[in-house]
Amino acid sequence: xxxxxxxxxxxxxxxxxxxxxxxxxxxxxxxxxxxxxxxxxxxxxxxxxxxxxxxxxxxxxxxxxxxxxxxxxxxxxxxxxxxxxxxxxxxxxxxxxxxxxxxxxxxxxxxxxxxxxxxxxxxxxxxxxxxxxxxxxxxxxxxxxxxxxxxxxxxxxxxxxxxxxxxxxxxxxxxxxxxxxxxxxxxxxxxxxxxxxxxxxxxxxxxxxxxxxxxxxxxxxxxxxxxxxxxxxxxxxxxxxxxxx
Length: 245
Ligand SMILES: Nc1ncnc2c1ncn2[C@@H]1O[C@H](COP(=O)(O)OP(=O)(O)OP(=O)(O)O)[C@@H](O)[C@H]1O
Ligand SMILES: CC(C)(CO)[C@@H](O)C(=O)NCCC(=O)O
Ligand SMILES: [K+]
Known about the structure:
It is found in: Cytoplasm. This protein is an alpha/beta fold and about 240 residues long. The chain is built from six helices and twelve strands. It folds into two domains: about 5-75, ATPase, nucleotide binding domain (Nucleotidyltransferase, domain 5, 2-Layer Sandwich); about 115-230, Nucleotidyltransferase, domain 5, CATH 3.30.420.40. The chain has helices spanning about 40-45, 55-70, 100-110, 145-155, 175-200, 230-245, and strands spanning about 5-10, 15-20, 25-30, 45-55, 75, 80-85, 85, 115-120, 125-130, 135-140, 205-210, 225. Bound molecules: adenosine-5'-triphosphate (ATP), pantothenoic acid and potassium ion.
């Protein structure tokens, strides 16, 4: 890494905080932060922060205070009604989760056909975009951890750890039945997304991202692609547009 001026990209998710560093061309580093002290070494190298948050308001407040003390301006990103050709379908554009908006921006940058982007985080979300750039809307459902967490909370099912082998085969023990069942629900979202895309004319792709996308057998479907760090890459695209100004 050179010592050029960098911008810090921060994705405050529902449960984790992720960051990236961009030089305007590339994301040159990424990581996860769970302790405020970890930001200080990063501050020395950046002149601007791009922040996208969908949760943890108290953490966002702490970040605002920290960067203000360091005299580093913070751009807080929100969903817009349009960026380039991408048009937000929400009746109130700003109400669309900014993580969903950034994930769409990111996928649209790399692919101009019809697509769905599915984010498997605390919540699992799916958003549909046509080749024209028109967003159709999407879905919000409980994510993998949230699904089995809800089962443990609402039933007498025993708490158990994630099995080593996770697939959607019919299980013959409770632990497998729970986790394979939740994985089947995630796969179900992909199948239904594929069905929705098939209703529109033209080629399509499905992009998957988020911490729990790693459990999905994406190699089994040639139309499914990994979009790792899609939210951070969306922030990088916004920051790069500002670098260019
Ligand atoms: N170190 C890790 N590496 C990869 N995945 C992780 C890690 N820690 C937790 N996860 C998984 O990531 C999921 C959380 O998804 P994600 O990484 O997208 O973060 P998040 O903070 O929940 O953000 P969001 O819900 O906004 O997507 C959890 O359900 C968990 O299974
Ligand atoms: C759906 C989540 C929780 C997914 O992280 C987030 O995008 C969010 O808080 N969205 C706001 C509501 C919406 O997108 O309709
Ligand atoms: K998410």
